[in-house]
Amino acid sequence: MIDLSTTIGNAWFPSPLFTASGCASSGKELAQFIDLREIGAVVTKSVMSKPRHGRPTPRMAETPSGMVNSIGLQGPGIDAFLSHDLPWLVSQKARVIVSIAGETIEEYSTLARKLRSAPGISAVEVNISCPNVENRGLVFACDPDASRRVIDGVRKTLGGELPIIAKLSPDVTDLVSIAKGVVDAGADGLALINTVLSMVINLDTMRPHLGGKTGGLSGPAIRPIAVRAIYQVHEALPHIPILGMGGVASGRDALELILAGAKGISVGTASFGDPAAIITIQNELIELLSVRGFTSVAQAVGFAHRPVEESENS
Amino acid sequence: MIDLSTTIGNAWFPSPLFTASGCASSGKELAQFIDLREIGAVVTKSVMSKPRHGRPTPRMAETPSGMVNSIGLQGPGIDAFLSHDLPWLVSQKARVIVSIAGETIEEYSTLARKLRSAPGISAVEVNISCPNVENRGLVFACDPDASRRVIDGVRKTLGGELPIIAKLSPDVTDLVSIAKGVVDAGADGLALINTVLSMVINLDTMRPHLGGKTGGLSGPAIRPIAVRAIYQVHEALPHIPILGMGGVASGRDALELILAGAKGISVGTASFGDPAAIITIQNELIELLSVRGFTSVAQAVGFAHRPVEESENS
Amino acid sequence: MTNINKSSERLIATVVSNKRVGQYHQILLNVGQMVNGCKPGNFVAIKVGGDNAKMILRRAFAISRVSHSGPYGGSMELIVAPFGQGSKWLCAQIEGATIDLIAPLGTAFGIPTEPVRALLVGGGYGSAPLFGLAEVLKNRGCRVDMYLGASTGGKIYAPMEGKRSVNVLKIYTEDGSMGERGRVTEPIPGLIADGLVDVIYSCGPMPMLRAISHIVAGSDVVHQCAVEESMACGVGICMTCVLPVADSEGNVSMKRSCIDGPVMDGSQVMWDLVGKIPEAHA
Amino acid sequence: MTNINKSSERLIATVVSNKRVGQYHQILLNVGQMVNGCKPGNFVAIKVGGDNAKMILRRAFAISRVSHSGPYGGSMELIVAPFGQGSKWLCAQIEGATIDLIAPLGTAFGIPTEPVRALLVGGGYGSAPLFGLAEVLKNRGCRVDMYLGASTGGKIYAPMEGKRSVNVLKIYTEDGSMGERGRVTEPIPGLIADGLVDVIYSCGPMPMLRAISHIVAGSDVVHQCAVEESMACGVGICMTCVLPVADSEGNVSMKRSCIDGPVMDGSQVMWDLVGKIPEAHA
Ligand SMILES: Cc1cc2nc3c(=O)[nH]c(=O)nc-3n(C[C@H](O)[C@H](O)[C@H](O)COP(=O)(O)OP(=O)(O)OC[C@H]3O[C@@H](n4cnc5c(N)ncnc54)[C@H](O)[C@@H]3O)c2cc1C
Ligand SMILES: Cc1cc2nc3c(=O)[nH]c(=O)nc-3n(C[C@H](O)[C@H](O)[C@H](O)COP(=O)(O)OP(=O)(O)OC[C@H]3O[C@@H](n4cnc5c(N)ncnc54)[C@H](O)[C@@H]3O)c2cc1C
Ligand SMILES: Cc1cc2nc3c(=O)[nH]c(=O)nc-3n(C[C@H](O)[C@H](O)[C@H](O)COP(=O)(O)O)c2cc1C
Ligand SMILES: Cc1cc2nc3c(=O)[nH]c(=O)nc-3n(C[C@H](O)[C@H](O)[C@H](O)COP(=O)(O)O)c2cc1C
Ligand code: FES
Ligand code: FES
C-alpha cells in the first residue's frame, strides 16, 4: 500500500491529485465521470469579486500537444460562488481549494475576507497571473513587488487559518526571486506553473485567432517548462510545498513533477481530453511509485535533487 | 510568381528561409539533402573564441511535440571555423549568417573583430543566450543591461558593414524592453526565439535526464510562444526586421510567423526530423502565399497587425 | 449529484462501417446500450489521432441517429466532413477500428407534446441530426417539412431512408447544382407569413441560425437551434464554447454551448453579441 | 560537395513482412535501389508515429541485412525491440504499411583486405548487423566466429539462415535460459591469449563494447564496435550523439556517433569519459 496523502501548510489531503483551477469549472460537471471524494481536492475556477463575462470567443486554439486559451476569468463572482458552488462541493464531501483572482491588491483582500468565514475550504490558491489595473495592466505575477503585496494583503486578512498557495507565472526572468518574495509575504505553498503567454494566428482571417489576441499555453507541450520551474524553485526553497502542474496527462508525468519537487499535482488540460483523467493518473502513479519501491508519495517529493552517490559517479 | 526575397539591414536574401543556428552544424551535413543555394542563408552553429567540448551526454530528450537539448555550444572555435567551415560554405555559393557566442562582453567583440575581415558573410547573428561568466552566470539575454552592452561592443567593432541580428531568449519578463535595448545599441534585426529553459527527469535514474540538467525546449511545442514573442516585438518595433523561429515545421507555420511580423524564418528542430524540411517548407509557403493573393513575402510580413476594417467589425 | 452530463459515459466503440456520401463520411459506430440515452440534438466527443497524437482535444460531432437493434446491437451514426486533421483522421478509420468517445452530451431538441407543424432547416452536415428528429416528430403526429441547404450539391446530406419521416423535403444550393438555386433561409419568411409553421428546428452554420432567428423574431414561431461553437472539453469544464444568451428577464450571460446547448432557444441567443462580450455586469 | 551522408536518401518504403522473433520484430522493408549503398554497420533513421504524431524525431535502427533481389526488388531487414512508444509503433506496422526512412547512414564495419580470424560479438539486438557482416567476411575468406549474449533467451537474435556464414556460433545468457550461462565477454580473454582472434567486431550495449575494449587493450587485436548513443537527427546536424574519441595523437574530441560512427575503433573511444566531458581544450 502506498500512502498517497500530502499536506500543504496545515491542510491535509488523502491524495496528491487535484484539479487545476479553471479546468474543472465548479466541480459539478465532473461529478458524472469521477467521484470527487477520491481526489485530493477540487481547485475551483478563479473567482473574482463581481460576476464576469470573460473574453470574447474564440477562446481557444489547439496547438501541437497543447492548447492556447483566453477565457478571461468568466465567473459568477464570489457571492454567488459562496452561496451556490461551494455549498454543493461541501455537500458532496469534496475537499475544496478556492482560487481567487483580482484586478487590484484590494480586491484580493476583499475576496480573502469573504472566504475567511466560509466553511469547508481547505486552502486558498491566489492566482496572481492577472493584469493589475492599478499598474498599466502589468500582470501581478510578473512584478515581484506587486506579487508580494497581494500575498501580504491576503495573509493579513486571512490570519493564520487557511493555507495560502500563491500561483506563479512562468513568464518571468527570475522565478525563484518571485517565489521567495511571496513566501516572505506569507505564502504557505506555491502553485507552479500557470499557462505560458502565447498566440495563434488564424490563417484564414490572417489575424490573431483568439478574441483576446494572446492566451495561455497549456498541456503536454509545456511540461518540460513546468518541470524546470518546479525543480528550480524546490532547489531554492526545499521546505515550501509546491503544487505542480503543467501538461500532466499520465502517471509518469505526475511522477516526473513529484520527483522535481511537487507535493501535489493539478491536472488541467488533460481533463478536457478525458474527464476521468485525474483518476487514471492517480492509479498509474500508485503503480509507478510501488514499482520503484516507494511506500509514500512524500518519499518521492524532490527525489531528483538527492545528492549523487559515489557509486553513480564512477 | 511570388517574390520570395527578403532583407535584414543591408543584407539581401533570395528566400526568407534560413537554417537555425545549431540545427545545421556547419552546413556540410545538409548538402546531401538540399541545395544550400536554394535557401535564404545558412545560419551557422554559434561559434566561440576557443574550441569547446560542450556539455556531457545525454544531450537531448524528446518531449511531446518538442525536444529539450543541452549541447553547450560544442564547436571548433572561431579560427578553425574561419579557416575550414566558412570557406567551404562560400565555395558552395551559400549565403552565410555567422552566429557568435561568448562568455564575456569582450569575447563577443573579439569574435566580431575576426569576422570583420572574413569574406562571404551576409550578417552576424549574436546569440546572447549564454551565461555571462562575469556576472554570476546570469544569461546575457535575461539582463537588459548586459544584452545592450554585448550588442554595443559588437556594433562598435564591426562598424557599419555587417548587419547585426541580436538573438533573444523568451525566458524574460519583458521581451519588448530587451528588444528595444539591443536595437538602441545598434542591432539591425532581432532573432526570436531561442529555446525555452526546460528540464526532463529520467524516470529510471530519477534524476535530471540531461547531462547539463536543464536544457532548451524547441520544436512545434513552442510555436505559440514564438508567435506571441514575434507579434509583441513587431507591434512595438514595426520597422525592425525579425528573423522568426520556434517550431516551424511546415509552410503554414512559416506563414503564421511571417503574419506575426517575421521577415525571415529559421528552421531548426524540423530539420532533425527531415533534413530537407526547409525546402518543403519553402515550397509550401509559396503555395500558401499565392492562394492568399500575395505576390511577395514582404506583403505578408506583419499582416496580422493591420487595422480592423469596418466591414469586419460588424 | 447533479444533472449535468447525466448518462454521459466514455466508451471504446468499434467502427461498423464508413461510407463516403457526397463530400461527407457516414460513419456507423457500435455503441451498445449507450443508444438508450441518446436523443436528437445530442453530440458525441471523439478522441482523434490515435495513441501518439499531438492532438489533445476531442472533436464534437452531432449524433445523426441511433439504431437500437442492429446486427451488432445499438449503433450510432455520424456524418463527418473531412475538414482539418482530426476529422480527416476520423474519416480515415476503417471497419473494425476502435474509437474512444464520450456520449451522449449536451441538450436535445425539445419535442412538443401536441402535434405541431415543424420545419426542420439544415445547412451542410447540419442535416445529420434532423432525420432522427423528424422520425420522433412524425411519431408524435407532427407535420414535418425539411429544407436543406449548402453551397453545392456534394455538401447536401439527405439519405433516402431519412425521407420517409418527412412530408416535404426541399433542397437549396447556392450554385444550383442540386435542388433550387438559392439559400435555404429564403423561403422561410413566406412560410411564416402564410402561417404554415409552428416550430423551426435548425442545425447548421451559425450565420444560418442567426438568419432564421431574425426571420422568426416578432412571430409566434418557436426556434430551436443547435449551435456550433469551438469546444475544448465538451463537458462544461473549460468555458471555451460560450455564447451570450438572455434569460427570460433579459439578463445576458455567457452560456456554455456544450452543456446549456448545443440546442438552444434561438430567440434567447444574442446573435449580435456572438464573438463579443456583453456589457459588463452591473 | 562533401562525403558526409553520401548516398543517403529519404524514401517511403513498404513493409513486406513483420514477424515476431523471440522478443524482437523482424521487419522487412522494400527499399529498391537503396540497398546498393547499404553496408554492414550502417543504420536507418525512421519517422515514427504516423502523420499526427507528437514524436518529432526519427529513431535509429541498424540495418540487419539487405537483399538485392527479392520478389519485391531490393529489401532491407531490421530487428526491432519494442522498447518505447516509437519502436512499439514500428513493431505494430503491418504488411503494406508505408515507412518514411532515411538510409544508409553512418560508418560501416571495415572489411579487411586479407583473410583474418574475426570474432563477431553481439549483445541483444546488436547481433542484427553481424549476420550480414559475417557473410561479407566469409566471402573474403575470413574465419568467422560469432558469440551472442543477452540477459535471457528471448533476447537472443540468431536466425537459422544467418548461421551459414559462421564457423562457430556460441550463445550466452545471464539467466542460462539459452546457450551457456554467463556473459558473452567472459570467453574473450582466453581466445585472445590463445591467439585465435585478429579482429573483433562488436555491436550491443555500451557496457559490453566498453568491456571488450578493455579486454583487447594492450593486445594486437583490432576492435571495431558499433556504438549506440541517443540521436536527435542521425545526419550530423544536432551534436546530441557525441562521445569522446582520441585521434592518433591522443587529442580527444567529441565525435558524432551518427556520422563518425556508429562503427568506431574501440581503442580510440575514451570509454571512461562517455557521459562526461574531457578536460577543456588547451
Ligand atoms: C456540437 C457540435 C456538433 C458538430 N457536429 C458535426 C457533425 O455532425 N459533422 C461534422 O462534420 N462536424 C461537426 N461539428 C464540427 C466539428 O467538430 C469540427 O469540424 C471538427 O472539430 C474539426 O476538427 P479538425 O481536427 O478536423 O479541425 P481543426 O481545425 O484541426 O481543429 C482544431 C480545433 O478547432 C476546433 N474546431 C474546428 N472547426 C470547428 C467547428 N466548425 N466547430 C467547432 N469546433 C471546431 C476543433 O474541435 C479542434 O479543437 C460539430 C461541432 C460541434 C461543436
Ligand atoms: C545507431 C543505432 C542503431 C540502433 N539499432 C537498433 C536495432 O537494430 N534494433 C533496435 O531495436 N534498436 C536499435 N537502436 C535503439 C533504438 O534506436 C531505440 O530503441 C529507439 O530509438 C527507442 O525509441 P522509442 O521511441 O521506442 O523509445 P523512447 O524512449 O520513447 O525514445 C525517446 C527518444 O530517446 C531515444 N532513445 C531511446 N532509447 C535509445 C537507445 N537505446 N539508443 C538510442 N536512442 C535511444 C529515441 O531515439 C528517441 O529520440 C539503435 C540505436 C542507434 C543509435
Ligand atoms: C481553459 C483554461 C482555463 C484556466 N483558468 C484558470 C483560472 O481560472 N485560474 C488559474 O489560476 N489558472 C487557470 N488555468 C491554468 C491551469 O490551472 C494550469 O495552471 C495550466 O493550464 C497548466 O496545467 P495543464 O497543462 O495541466 O492545463 C486555466 C487553464 C486552462 C487551459
Ligand atoms: C540541438 C540544438 C542546438 C542549438 N544550438 C544553438 C546555437 O548554437 N545557437 C543559437 O543561437 N541557437 C541554438 N539553438 C536554438 C535554435 O537556433 C532555435 O532558436 C530554436 O531551436 C527554436 O527553433 P526550432 O523550434 O525550429 O528548433 C539550438 C537548438 C537546438 C534544438
Ligand atoms: S467545451 Fe468546455 S465548457 Fe463547453
Ligand atoms: S544525431 Fe544529430 S549529430 Fe548525430
TrEMBL record, chains A, B:
- Keyword Cell cycle assigned to the entry: answer is no
Family label: Belongs to the dihydroorotate dehydrogenase family. Type 1 subfamily.
Return the GO cellular component terms, semicolon-separated: cytoplasm
Read off the CDD domains from this record: DHOD_1B_like
> What Gene Ontology molecular-function terms does this entry list?
dihydroorotate dehydrogenase activity
Q: Name one GO biological process term.
A: 'de novo' pyrimidine nucleobase biosynthetic process
Q: What NCBIfam families does the annotation carry? A: PRK07259.1, pyrD_sub1_fam
Q: Which UniProt keywords apply?
A: Cytoplasm, Flavoprotein, FMN, Oxidoreductase, Pyrimidine biosynthesis
Report the principal subcellular site: cytoplasm
Q: Look up the record and name the cofactor or cofactors this protein needs.
A: FMN
Any Pfam family hit: DHO_dh
Where is this protein found? Answer: Cytoplasm
Every copy of the Dihydroorotate dehydrogenase catalytic domain together lies at: 4-289
The pathway that the record names for this protein is:
Pyrimidine metabolism; UMP biosynthesis via de novo pathway
Family matches, as PANTHER family: DIHYDROOROTATE DEHYDROGENASE (FUMARATE), DIHYDROOROTATE DEHYDROGENASE (QUINONE), MITOCHONDRIAL-RELATED
What protein name does the entry list? Unannotated protein
Automatic annotation (TrEMBL), chains C, D:
Q: Which cofactor does it need?
A: [2Fe-2S] cluster
Dihydroorotate dehydrogenase electron transfer subunit iron-sulphur cluster binding domain: which residues? 228-269
Record-linked Pfam families: DHODB_Fe-S_bind (PF10418)
Provide the GO MF annotations for this entry: 2 iron, 2 sulfur cluster binding; flavin adenine dinucleotide binding; metal ion binding
Kindly give the InterPro entries that the UniProt entry links to this protein: Cyt_c3_hydrogenase_gsu, Dihydroorotate_DH_ele_sf, Dihydroorotate_DH_Fe-S-bd, FNR_nucleotide-bd, PyrK_electron_transfer, Riboflavin_synthase-like_b-brl
Annotated keywords: 2Fe-2S, Electron transport, FAD, Flavoprotein, Iron, Iron-sulfur, Metal-binding, Transport
Biological process terms from the Gene Ontology for this record are: pyrimidine nucleotide biosynthetic process
Q: Which family does it belong to?
A: Belongs to the PyrK family.
Which protein, by its recorded name, is this? Unannotated protein
Protein source organism = freshwater metagenome
Q: Which classification does the entry list for the species?
A: unclassified sequences, metagenomes, ecological metagenomes
